Amino acid sequence: MFSEQAAATAQGLLAPPSAEPPTFPRVAVSGYSDCSQPFQLGERSFARQYAHIYAVRLAGMRPGLERRARSRWGNDVVLRRLSELQEGEKCCVVGTLFKSMQLQPSILQEISEEHNLVPQPPLPKYIQPSDELILEDELQRIKLEGAIDVQRLVTGTIVAVYGCEQDNGRFLVEDHCFADLPPPLPWSGPSSDRYVLLASGLGLGSVSGEALLSTQLLVDVVTGQLGAEGEQSCAAHITRVILAGNLLSQNTQSRDTINKAKYLTKKTQAASVEAVKMLDEILLQLCTSVPVDVMPGEFDPTNYTLPQQPLHRCMLPLASAYATLRLVTNPYQASLDGVRFLGTSGQNISDIFKYSSMDDYLEILEWTLLVGHISPTAPDTLGCYPFYKSDPFILTECPHVYFCGNAPHFQSKLLQGKEGQRVLLLTVPDFSATQTACLVNLHDLSCQPITFSSFGADSEDGDMELEH
Amino acid sequence: MSRRAMEQPRRITDSFPRRRRRGPGRPPGRLKNKKDKDKDKDEVQLKVRDCPRAPSQPPPDPALMEMLRRFDLSWEYGPCTGITRLQRWERAQELGLSPPGLIRDALLEHRDNPDVTYSLWHEYEL
């Protein structure tokens, strides 16, 4: 987008100033509606167990899975509950998967005194060949074996398995299926080019300030203060900026001050205070020019359990004065100009990455869409609010853009479904590491990365590059 | 525009009607009636042992209590601990499990009786 139009007018920068400097009005925001009400928790009560969320998840997804099972294995396939299983009879069972992993960190093992074990250090992946899959429904559970990939699947997925029970008490799986893509939403996107910029992992408050220059370049490009007239007119087509989590860096989370003596730490401020002030100034520059949606992430000052609630506006006094700043939940769902966006700050994908053999963030993102649930590992290994009435992470409609933040690389894919679904799957890279943001064109669901790399210490010619 | 600029004995808050304070230790901001907040809360609190019973209601008959007990123990409607019976009934209704309407009528009739509204195990924490 930028390169074709910008190059033509580059010589405008070296021309004498004109009498009337050209202005480029930003494209007006026409439909925006926030659809994240299921993720906004009002009053929270933690006096409940997590059995409710699993029960509601199974009860909510069971009808869809039974329909899928009938369409795949014939209308006369026998649907049974685990308590009604008969040995040797081929039937279909719908239930929740549980993967028992030996390496899964268990608090009970850590505090057990008989073992005298040091708690195990965090590993990148906790999978092992000896992991087992167990299918649970409302009353019973049974071990699974056969045509089902144990390493790939994670706890909490709702699955329909087809097979028969054997005499050793295990269920031999011949075939299995998931909920598949949810029903499509009607398309009413804009008729001309409109762009949304997605960035995540700004990482403010980190020890090294390298990413700060790139962040400032990003702000300058979006507000139109960078480049010649071509680039400014392109930037005027950006209608929204979404910051998908991890605005603060992990360094702000250090809790060394807890171990030190009180007299040493009395006057020190938490590292996040300075980082939030920097965030406020950056958001102020952005909000004066473009609507911004700020999603919290893993290291941001909000609650830990999913769904994370919006950052409080008292932390951002300068930027909150503008109505263009929207502090939103994680996961976030909204309809921008008729295009439905749904995304998270990446905690769900990185948690599945730890407990599954899937290595590619885009592959995991696509898998969560095919399974019909944003985050199946919550509440088992990812903190989650104890919902009792309904599970808001179940996907009931297929979004047009499905993104996750804080991925290691930029990846995108346009997925076509059988019922006419068109989804742009997008992994937004970590800005502090890659200095890359994403531009999504709402008109045709195309996507391109935009990198703001500055000169490194070992590059000879010290040029600043704006690649796209 | 700080309030320090108007250093007079008259305050802005004087224009609001004064209410009686609830206690000597209470900050002046919290003048709302605490009972209204409790009525809005639909959630079960952690320690609900001493709910006062409404004296005017007759005690519900044992057949009704047995029906409610059976509603708690039936597995089709999901787990029963940690939520009120009415919340469980409404959740079962929304999931399409068609719970019997009699139970809802009984729950609404004896709303003030904690033995009716809360589940069988509400006195045990979590």
UniProtKB/TrEMBL annotation, chain B:
The gene is POLD4. Pfam families: DNA_pol_delta_4 (PF04081). One of its GO terms (cellular component) is delta DNA polymerase complex. Residues 18-34 have a biased composition (Basic residues). Residues 1-63 are annotated as: Disordered. PANTHER family: DNA POLYMERASE DELTA SUBUNIT 4. This is DNA polymerase delta 4, accessory subunit. One of its GO terms (biological process) is DNA-templated DNA replication. Residues 1-17, 35-52 have a biased composition (Basic and acidic residues). It comes from the Eukaryota. It comes from Taeniopygia guttata. GO terms for molecular function: DNA-directed DNA polymerase activity.
